[in-house]
Structures are given as C-alpha cells and as structure tokens.
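Handout, tutorial session.
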Amino acid sequence: MAAKAGISPLGTAVDIGAMLSMFACMLASITAASRVMMRVAHEGLLASALERTNRRRGTPGSAIVLSAGLMLGATVVLALHGMTGPDMNDLLGSLSVFGFLTAYALVAAALPFARRALGQHSHRVTAIAVVTVVVMILIVIFDLISASDPAHARIPYLYLAYLILGVAWYAVKRKKAAPVVR
C-alpha cells in the first residue's frame, strides 16, 4: 500500500516495526512461560532443575531454554507440515485466546469468594462476576458454532484436550507428592 501511495520507505518502516513487535512478543512469551515453569517446578509439578535461577540475575535459565525450545520445536513441526507464518500466527493466536478466556473466567469466579474471605462481600461484585463468567462461556459457544474452516473448528477441542491433560498431570503429581497420614 505504501508503494502505491508513493511512500515505499514507510512500508519498509512498518515491516521493520512489525518484525520488532513480533520479536518482543516472542521474548515476552518466553519470559512468561519460563516464570510459570519455574513456579510450577517449585510446587513439585515439574523437574526441580526448572526452578533454579541464575545467582546474579535471578533468571530461570533452564526454564528459559525449555520454553524457547518448545516454541522453536512447535514452529519447526508446523513449518515442516507446510504451515506458513501467518497461518501459524492465526491458529496459535486463536488457540491462546481460550487460555485467556479460561484465566479471566477463573479470576471472575474466584473474586466473590476472595472478597468474602476478606470480609468485603458485595452482591454487586458477585453479579458482575457471574455476568463475566457467562460472557466468557458465550464467547466459547459462539466460537464453536462460527468456525468457518476445519482447522479453526478443532481449536476449542485441542484446548479442551490440553486442559484435561493438564488437570490429569496435576492430579497424578499431587497424589504422588501428598504426605502420608497415619
């Protein structure tokens, strides 16, 4: 578009900006994932090596390497199966939306209980929390019925399988880590 408007350098600048933005998003994702891995390892649900941090910088090096490796591995596998970068961005971005919806719904559902525990119960907050959870559920339902192609139609089910595996992993690890009461 910039070339058609006679300002080609602007198109190049936009491309560079988009590339830098994607790089920053990748780094932020690796950082967030490694910190989550570190915390999960601290709880005994992943290998203890993932909770170790650099003495000087406090960064979880092994968790960063694993996080980056998983991202790279997934990208390579998808690329080897013929998926383009924009398609990966579209499908994986769509998949991640379900993670955000789950987190938002869980926080909204927990809010009234947390407020009550603090002695700050509010019917208004409870009503807003209920509406929020219902809206999150409706978004998922609308996504299920509006998927226009087979790849997008499978995303909610892939996410559900991911959740089931995660809960099963948690149950198995917690059962093994549970103290024996006599």
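The second record follows below. Compare its token runs with those of the first.
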Amino acid sequence: MERTKSILGIVGNETRRRILAFLSEGPHYVLEISKKLDITQPAVLKQLTLLERAGLVESFMKASKYGASRKYFKICDSVNIEVVINPRDFRITKHPSTISCPVYLENEKAMEELTTQINEAKNLNEKAVKAQEMMRRTATLLSCEKYIAEDWNCRNCHMISSLRKRISETIIHMSKGEMTSVIQVLTSLMDLV
C-alpha cells in the first residue's frame, strides 16, 4: 500500500502526468520532451529523476545518427491503480498489468489470431466468417461460470469480450448490408467505451 500511495503522490503532479502521457507514445529523450511539452530541460530532468526513482520510467542509451548516444526514457511495465471514491466507499487498489484468468488466457491467443485474420481478409464475406468464429469465442468468455463481478480479472475479461463481440456483430451486419443494425451496434459500442 505504501508504494501505491507513493505512486499516487508522484502522478499527482501535472507536469509529471504530461511527461508520462508523452512517454506513453514511446521512448523519448530529454530535448524531445522539453520541446513537445514546452518545459525547460532542467525541469524535465528533475521530473524524470523522480519518476525513475518511483519505478514508473526507466532510461536507456541509444545511438544517435547525429553523434553521441542519447539517454532515452520510457514507461516501465504497467502499473494499474484503481481509485474508487463515492459516498459509500473510498479505496485504492493496485491491479496486475495483465489478465491472469485461465479461461481468458486459453481463449486469448485464438482471439488474437482471429483478429489478425479479420484484418487481413480480402473481402467482407471472409471477414464475416471469421467474425462468426470470434462471436463463438466471446460467448464462451461472456458466459463463464467462474465470473465474479467484483474481480478485476473478470471485469476486464468481460469488457474486452463485449467489445470484440460488438465489433464482430458490426462486421456481420455490414456483410449483410444491414446498415441500420451497424449504426445501432456502433452506438452501443460508444456506451461501452
């Protein structure tokens, strides 16, 4: 819990949040960060030092085509912190960065392959066939008998599966020329996000 409090204190600073947001796009060196965020280089270095000490970013050296190697900074592995504030509850929970549910993991590789096949399919009918298979996979996850609404793994598995199901529905409706249904599914997708 102490590390979580420390992380919340670190990301409570707007400048550090801006730096983290920029680093979420990929690794950058100090001058890039300074120019992009319109912050002096010493100020950027000070904030990066704090972020690095907290274990949120790490640095590495990379050769530059313009001369000497440069020190780049990137975000470390994910830290997922959930803050719940409402009239009946206040809690801070640190979650793992990946879903560890065995049912999800068993299906995830197949769904990633299906997603690739859908993206690479040459025509809409071919995409629809793969989308049908994706619907079967998501149905397995959405009807999991081990589902617990309060469990972080279950909630995220359910959300990802729901999104994949809605996207698959959209592809299937498009292949049939059912544009009204496509609009309805896309509208419901906006509610999920």
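Points raised in discussion: Residues 102-192 form one domain.
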